[in-house]
Write a structure and sequence with these properties.
Order of helices and strands: EEHEEHHHHHEHHEHEEEHHH
Structural class: alpha/beta
Radius of gyration: 20 Å
Low-confidence stretches: none
CATH superfamily: Ribonuclease H-like superfamily/Ribonuclease H
CATH class: Alpha Beta
Number of strands: 9
Shape: globular
CATH topology: Nucleotidyltransferase, domain 5
Oligomer: single chain
Mean pLDDT: 94
Strand order of the largest sheet: 5-2-1-6-9-8-7
Strand content: 15-25%
Length: 325
């Protein structure tokens, strides 16, 4: 069988809000492990597409930046993420349930920061899509998966809240080091769970790093590692120990070429935006005259300046609110 995983993130750059790093893993029965990866868009073409204006009303699976804008909202992300979860019988009732379902670890769903744990912002899911329509989408998608002898076996999100983000920045001294902490955690899990099946993992590459050999050597000490190829925007490594093997591809714009990366991108963005909706709801209550923010750097600074009197009055721990990088 072929084990095919994608890893992507949302929220790498903002000043406020969580960083979310997601892996999605598909298993294709009857296909051998290979670097010649099939297009899941083609395999599932009766139920998925890339175009949100599809005349057949198929589910759009694409880079989250192409599916989401503040004006369009979460509809396309919600439809895709919740439909795929439903193919495994999972229908989260609210954001808390979704976080627990996807959680990378316990800290990924601990909601003890006040702007994430208040009842008023506990969204019922789905927020936008109709439940009945989602059930129909999931049924159509399930039939595509069955015909292709494929299944989604893993959808997992590391949610890095601001205080944890800041602790890891101080430890690793860079934002890239903080992100790698969770990418490496995903890779380690995949190695131990699927290593005997020789998985292929595609990681959407962020920043300017091109050589991952040192990081992989630290993650997998005493295990053989080989550079398979290096091209502009892409590098591929093979990790081998006895009968275990895993290929890891680091690729710029991986979500454009790899369906599992696109689904990871959508899930990461969906989770982050749901949390930011809760964040915004909290501050609309406590600072009703201040325009809401999505947390990106310039607008985040504006927001912080405008709520400064409220922060002082409420004695807010700034380390829980503001990311240091």
């Amino acid at each position: 069988m072929l084990v095919y995983t994608g890893i992507d993130e949302a929220g790498y750059g903002p000043l406020l809000g969580p960083l979310v790093i997601v892996r999605s893993t598909f298993v294709l029965e009857g296909k051998e492990p290979s670097l010649e990866l099939p297009s899941l868009w083609e395999l599932f073409n009766t139920s998925v597409c890339r175009n949100v204006r599809d005349k057949k009303h198929r589910i759009a699976v694409e880079d989250s930046k192409k599916l989401y804008t503040p004006s369009v909202g979460l509809r396309h992300l919600e439809r895709g993420v919740l439909s795929f979860l439903r193919t495994n019988g999972i229908a989260p009732e609210n954001l808390n349930h979704l976080l627990q379902t996807l959680a990378f670890d316990e800290l990924s769903f601990r909601l003890d920061i006040e702007w994430y744990n208040h009842d008023e912002g506990c969204q019922t899911l789905p927020m936008i899509c109709d439940r009945g329509d989602l059930d129909k989408d999931a049924g159509r998608l399930t039939r595509s998966l069955l015909r292709s002898r494929c299944r989604l076996v893993d959808l997992n999100a590391a949610v890095v809240f601001e205080d944890r983000f800041n602790r890891l920045i101080r430890k690793h001294r860079s934002k890239a080091g903080c992100a790698w902490n969770f990418v490496s955690g995903h890779l380690s899990t995949l190695w131990h769970r699927f290593g005997l099946e020789h998985p292929t993992v595609v990681v959407d590459r962020q920043g300017g790093r091109k050589d991952y050999s040192h990081l992989l050597a630290l993650l997998f000490p005493m295990i053989q590692q080989d550079l398979i190829y290096e091209k502009p925007g892409t590098s591929c490594y093979r990790i081998t120990e006895g009968e275990r093997m895993m290929h890891v591809i680091f690729q710029v714009n991986g979500e454009a070429c790899h369906f599992p990366v696109a689904l990871a991108s959508m899930t990461a963005k969906y989770v982050r935006e749901l949390l930011m909706n809760r964040f915004q709801h909290y501050w609309r209550i406590h600072a009703p005259d201040v325009k809401s923010t999505f947390g990106y750097f310039k607008d985040g600074r504006r927001f912080l300046e405008e709520i400064q009197p409220v922060l002082e009055k409420m004695d807010i721990d700034r380390d829980k609110l503001i990311r240091c990088r």
